[in-house]
Amino acid sequence: MVNWDLLSNALVSGVLLGGFYCAVAVGVTIAFGMLDIVNIAHPAFIMMGAFIAYFFNTSYGVDPLLACIIAAPFAYIGGRLMYRLYYFAFERHGEESLQGLAFFFGLLFIIEVGLLLIFGVDYRFVEARYIGPGINIGFVSIPWRMLIGLIVGLAMVAGVALFNAKTFTGRAILAVSQDPGALRLVGGNPVHIKEVAFGISIATAIVAGALLIIIQPVEPSIGRDLIGRVFAICVLGGMTSLPGTVIAAMLLGIAETLTTTYLGPSWSPAISFGILLLTLGVRPAGILGR
């Protein structure tokens, strides 16, 4: 017999987790899906955001989410500089495949080791009024920390989608992955457009890091657990599709919580790859891919 209380809570938890996955994956959708840059260091930047939130929260009492929103413009500038380095070192010479992948792997290693040296291997957590309590609607419990992750995650995707739809730079980001030559004909500079887009990608990762440490305690190496999930969501959603990213994130979140509820947490890491392989077998372009 189905336990409807348990099932309802699992589904709601899955939607909330999917909202957090939206925040985590939107930067990969920009970098990997739209720019064709395999930034496997993206989870490391998420961890950097988590520890920025931790530092300012524990040292100065700043709200963790506010700390990362303030840090996001600096991350945007850093992301632009990082793409410039990537372009001049690899992409300009057509060596962005293997050498570029090694570049981002090196960044992943440097950031993780740096965080370990500064903060150690212990789990760190932040304090805020909304971390403990929640909302009870009947027999369904909604923790505030997860609800904030859902709201901010969806807001980030909506903000990027609105930027892409309403600005020349945003439309150019969508165009640069399809036809850089045509973009030049209408006055766009593909290198500049990619630089801006990659900066946005890194900025979103920093904000996602604040959501992560709000949801759970963190230590520097747990970012590795997100690598498979973020790329699975990007591919599953259709690479360049932001609505597809939301759908894929929700599906993955629900699938993981149902698996954890009924089979145990040890099975949940395999779910993202299982769904990805199933989707690629049925629809290789992803849910909303063309």
Topology:
Layout: H1 4-34, H2 42-60, H3 64-89, H4 98-119, E1 134-137, E2 140-143, H5 144-166, H6 168-176, H7 180-185, H8 190-215, H9 224-237, H10 242-262, H11 268-282
Antiparallel strand pairs: 1-2
Helix pairs in contact: 1-5, 1-8, 1-9, 1-10, 2-3, 2-4, 2-8, 3-8, 5-6, 5-8, 6-8, 9-10, 9-11, 10-11
Describe the structure concisely for a colleague:
The chain is mainly α. It contains 11 helices and 2 strands; from the N terminus they run H-H-H-H-E-E-H-H-H-H-H-H-H. Helix 3 packs antiparallel against helix 8.
Care to describe what's here?
The protein is mainly α and about 290 residues long. It has a single domain, classed as Orthogonal Bundle (ABC transporter involved in vitamin B12 uptake, BtuC), CATH 1.10.3470. The protein has 11 helices and 2 strands. It has a two-stranded antiparallel sheet with strand order 1-2. Helix 1 packs across helix 9, helix 5 packs across helix 6 and helix 10 packs across helix 11. It is globular and about 60 Å long. The mean pLDDT is about 90.
H/E element order: HHHHEEHHHHHHH
> Strand order, biggest sheet?
1-2
Helix % is: over 70%
Average pLDDT, to the nearest integer? 89
Total beta strand runs = 2
**Biggest sheet character:** 2 strands, antiparallel
